[in-house]
Amino acid sequence: MTWDHFTSYEVTRRRFLAAAGATLGVAACGGVPASADSPAGDARLADLTPETAALRREIVQSPVRVALHRAEAFTKVFRPSEDQPWILRKATALREYFQTVPLYLRPHDRLAGAISESPGAMPVMVELGIGENNIYTSERPDRKGYLKNQVPVEIRDWWKNRNMWGQFRTEIRGEPPYRSPDEVPQSLHYKFLSHQGHLSPSYGELLRTGLAGVLEGVRARRQGESDAGRLDFLTAAESSLSGLSDWIQRYAEFLASEAGRSQAAGRAAELREMARIAQKVAAQPPDTFREALQLIWFVHQAIHIEGHGYSCTPDRVDQLLFPFYEADCRAGRLDDAQAVRLIENFVLKMYDNSFWGPEHHLTQGLCVGGSTADGDDQTNRLSWLFIEGATNLVLPEPLVWIRWHPRIDQSFFDFCLSRLERSTCFPMIWNDQAIPEGLIELGVSREDAFNYVPVGCNELAIPGQMYFNPGANAGYLPAIEAAISDGKGYQGQWKWRDVAPPAGDLATFDQFAAAVGAYLRRGIEQSYATECRHLQAQMRWGQSPLTSCFFHGCIDKARDLTAGTKYNILSCGGIAFAELRLVAKTRLARVLVEQGKHDEALALLDVSQSGAFA
After folding, report:
1. Which of the residues 46, 76, 286, 436 has the least number of beta carbons within 10 Å of its own beta carbon?
2. Per-residue model confidence (pLDDT) at position 307
3. Which residues contact 337 (CB under 8 A, 6 or more apart)?
4. What's the helix, strand, coil split of the chain in %, to 5?
5. Using an 8 Å Cβ cutoff, are 313 and 455 in contact?
6. DSSP assignment of 421-484, as one string?
7. What local confidence, expressed as pLDDT, does residue 113 receive?
8. Helix, strand or coil, per DSSP, at residue 226
9. What is the pLDDT of residue 590?
10. How far apart are CA 28 and CA 35, in angstroms?
């Protein structure tokens, strides 16, 4: 009996979901995650207005294409300035982009701000690396070559040894320079195509003081600074913020112009209101829920334009925006239906954040609920409305996260469980009894620890204070595979030696567990060695002075967020922990089958000869 024959036993979908649910928790939320291209007649979309449904349809159906304005603007600035500090060139190039990028607004969109000059198009972060995202192309092999012939050869040639990837190779790896841009690999690791990401800026001060207030703080800190490196950072921060303000001001003018051209009275009025809001929040703090939501989006989109890709969470929006919502409701300016429509639009903007195109998502998310350090429930009305708005859209992204604790509003928690089956890629429920305690053990204050948010798949951050800095990862399943294959892997892909005793010598579970632990530790050590080199590259050529303005401590210390955040903790991310039980049993069963121990393999999987789960 071969492994292929062994796995050909029929297992019904119901039985598989029952078994997987016990391990993965799928059954707890119910249903199957919805795809983005749900048909227009899908009953789950019935709660959308025609305008929101039309906007959703246009965003989801965006074609895959590449936008070049950022590549051109950055090349224009970097080329004649090779004698200047990298961070100043980066900030000047970003400001050039903000001041020159062509603007657009999708029909029916009520929030302005886009990542590129064309709907759904992906920019190219040339100062970091020019290549295809190998995560995207591994998911969609048919998209390999999406960047071929898209970036002009003169741009590729100039950057081949000058961007972060090129200098990482020559200065950190010690490899010879490329002689031709065609020698650059077609695809690269995402950390050489984007900044670190996996972070959550703090938008509290932004909402209190506006961009003008943040800018004033940078200028005040710059006064009297004599250290050249710190002065460079503060100058870059000021330039980046000024460029962001210019970009928003340009949107105000663009929206006013669009309003003048609109033939529909209702849309013209909408565009004039959007122009008014952009004009205001280009410098001043917001006063209304819609103004605050728009300002957060402008800034959040801007940090992606600066270069952060995967997994950026926009702070704890239900907590930040609740005072604006409450004031608007009291004044009669807003009701829940209007708030939900705006939230739906915000969610669609996150989905439309096409850093790597409209198909490959960024594992962005929205986190709601939670508790204070004293255990008080932080659920508010906006927590409900964000869950409603996000799940109304039946999209796989942004992800939806709920912070659970024993005193959570049970009706809210039940509402979340009833709504999460509608959509989202992998809804998560985070435990406020466990996570803050782990952060406190790492030196985080109790109050800060209870302000955590998820970022990405399962990483953690504290808005504006700590980002997920993956110094290493722990591969649980590879460690098991190594332990039961004498360090070689099923396909002979590894050459581990002298890590643990041979699999044939592991007589007890404790011995097996110790072997897995040994491989796990060795993998973490090697991962740290690799990732710390990547981090060195990010610290030298991956600085992001704009994003740093929204992290506490960076302006005071005059240091980029890679070194200046309040909690600068190297993290170790676990891979495939949730699937560990199910997949580990499958891999162990495969080894048993290959050894001819078919009955033991069947017993391990609790499968009868008929294929039914016992």
Report:
1. 46
2. 96
3. none
4. 55, 10, 40
5. yes
6. TTS-SS-EEEETTTHHHHHHHTT--HHHHTT-EEETTTEEEBTTTB--EEEEEEEHHHHHHHHH
7. 98
8. coil
9. 75
10. 20
Query: 3-42 burial by CB neighbour count: b if 16+ within 10 A, else e?
Result: eeebeeeeeeeeeeeebeeeeeebeebeeebbebebeeee
**Which segments of 282-409 does DSSP mark as H helices, in order?**
289-306, 317-331, 336-351, 381-392
Distance in angstroms (rounded) separating the CA atoms of residues 451 and 211: 23
88-94-100 Cα angle (round to 5): 135
Torsion angle (degrees, nearest 10) of CA 553, 548, 290, 458: -90
Q: Two tokens at 545?
A: 């002075």
Q: How many CB atoms lie within 10 A of CB 414?
A: 10
pTM: 0.88
Nearest to 249 by CA among 120, 71, 94, 112: 112
- How far lies 479's CA from each of 114, 473, 505, 600, in Å? 42, 12, 17, 22
d(C-alpha 355, C-alpha 302), whole Å: 11
Contact 65, 122 (CB under 8 A): yes
Give the number of other Cβ atoms within 10 Å of residue 596's Cβ: 10
Sign of the alpha-carbon dihedral angle for 539, 545, 547, 551: positive
| Per-10-residue mean pLDDT, the chain, length 614 | 40 34 33 48 78 96 95 98 97 98 98 97 97 93 94 98 98 97 95 92 98 98 95 98 98 98 96 98 98 98 96 96 98 97 97 92 93 97 96 91 96 92 77 95 96 90 89 85 92 92 91 94 91 92 97 95 89 71 68 79 58 32
Helices and strands counted in the chain (H then E): 26, 9
Q: Is 611 left (phi over 0), alpha (psi -120 to 50) or beta?
A: left
Strand partners, 400: 366
- Residues whose CB is less than 8 angstroms from the CB of residue 564 and which lie 6 or more positions away in sequence, other chains included: 548, 551, 553, 554, 557, 558
Partnered with residue 429 across adjacent β-strands are: 402
Cβ density class 434-446: b for 16+ within 10 Å, e for less: ebbeebeeeebee
Token pair 């594992």 is found at: 363
DSSP 3-state of 312: strand
What is the DSSP code string of 33-95?
A: PPPTT--TT-GGGTTS-HHHHHHHHHHHTPPP-B--HHHHHHHHHHGGGTTS-HHHHHHHHHH
pLDDT of residue 33: 39
CA dist list (Å): 177 to 182, 194, 531: 12, 21, 22
The answer to whether residues 460 and 454 touch, using CB atoms and an 8 Å cutoff, is yes
**Which structure tokens are listed for 354?**
């096409």
Report d(CA 293, CA 433) in Å as an integer.
Answer: 30
Query: For 441, what's the count of Cα atoms within 13 Å in the CB-facing half-sphere?
Result: 5
Residue 267 phi, psi dihedral angles, 5° rounding: -70, -35
